[in-house]
């Protein structure tokens, strides 16, 4: 077997019918790894370390629980979540009721919401 035949065999192996779907999925997996997996792993690393990079286990959580700011932070987060969900719900309901009344099914605005 000469060198040219081995290159042909490698090309056939890489681009076989079984491997093409995996090659087509490769960009999606790379995108997933770079923009979701790496930030999540970085966040997990930061949760368990201090500013100097020393491992603290649950020290950061203990510090957070002892802080005077945790109560207002939880209250503000819950308030923001409740208000934003209610506003989105009522706005969507209002649009769903008003859209058929104010426009015909052939109008551009009606079709944009479909």
UniProtKB/TrEMBL annotation:
Keywords of the record: Membrane, Transmembrane, Transmembrane helix
Chief location: membrane
InterPro entries linked: MetI-like_sf
Highest taxon, organism lineage: Bacteria
Annotated membrane topology: Multi-pass membrane protein
Membrane-spanning segments: 20-38, 73-99
GO annotation, cellular component aspect: membrane
Signal peptide positions (record): none
Localization terms from the record: Membrane
Protein name (Swiss-Prot/TrEMBL): Sugar ABC transporter permease
Annotated organism of origin: Hungatella hathewayi
